[in-house]
Amino acid sequence: MTLDPAALPTKDLYGLLSTAVAPRPIACAATVDGAGRVNLSPFSYFNVFSTVPPILVFSPIRRGRDGSAKDTLANVQEVAEVTINVVNFDMVEQMSLASTEYEKGVNEFEKAGFTAVASEIVRPPRVGESPVSFECTVDQVVPLGEGGGAGNLVVARVVRIHLDEAMLDEAGVLDTVKLDLVARMGASYYCRATPASLFEIPKPLRNMGMGVDGLPEHIRFSEVLTGNNLGRLGNLERLPEAEQLRAVSSLSEVVAARAGGRNALHRLAQQYLERGETEKALAVLLLELDGSSPTGQ
Ligand SMILES: Cc1cc2nc3c(=O)[nH]c(=O)nc-3n(C[C@H](O)[C@H](O)[C@H](O)COP(=O)(O)O)c2cc1C
């Protein structure tokens, strides 16, 4: 199915975009208007876009019903400062409450029951319950359109970072598991970064992987191996040496799998991949090439 976004009603386009582009981190953005009145609202059209300088961007959308500006947008245009507070599981219900469209001037810190902690540099306070808060000055606001649904990029430069020390590991580094962050999905779904939902992938930056195209054809077109399996194998720098092939060929499970044919061997390699034994998996897959002993004897 292929769609032309211009032919979709705004509501459907919003539903499609926000379901497909997910999970999205959530910024609880605190701002003040020219009179110093505080506002707090969550935004999931949000991310980090630069490390040096440290730049966060979020996007208050013009209201679908009348194209009017949300209070947050009006505020950053009056006072170019914002605190951006990340959202973890313990504060998700209060964050949701803070998204209520209260009238301009209503302080959502109070409505949501959040603690407003005075910032060091900027006027808007930060959320005391948030594990990580950023004090930011607003470099620019970039309107992406005029009507309902149009985003406005608020380009925010981080000038102070506040961390809850309980979120650090023994090395003093932010701990992903302790943070317990939540993210926004489509419709009213959220997801939570629990230990069960986390997994690691070795970074390909350190080596120059041979790529999936560097793998022999019988591996690339395997009936068993998945795209993830091939991606992991392609991250290896080179094909194994004869010595490695010899070493795996004598393992009893390899001998048994080899006797079972190509797919049995690929299934065994897949088990090795699931255990993180990538080089061993590739060695096993290469045994099949000539069907004889890897030493060629
Ligand atoms: C988790 C979550 C994420 C949201 N993300 C956005 C967003 O990225 N952009 C937006 O315009 N509204 C977003 N909203 C809706 C706003 O929070 C809501 O319109 C809020 O009332 C705006 O407040 P304001 O008028 O005080 O700025 C989100 C709401 C929730 C609950």
TrEMBL record:
Any GO MF annotation of the entry: FMN binding
Cofactor(s) required, per the database record: FMN
Residue stretches making up the Flavin reductase like domain: 21-176
Top-level division of the source organism's lineage: Bacteria
Matches recorded under InterPro entries: Flavin_Rdtase-like_dom (IPR002563), Split_barrel_FMN-bd (IPR012349)
Stored Gene3D superfamilies: Electron Transport, Fmn-binding Protein, Chain A
Keywords: Flavoprotein, FMN
Pfam families: Flavin_Reduct
UniProt cross-references to SUPFAM superfamilies, sorted A to Z: FMN-binding split barrel
Family: Belongs to the flavoredoxin family.
Protein's name according to its UniProt entry: Flavin reductase (DIM6/NTAB) family NADH-FMN oxidoreductase RutF
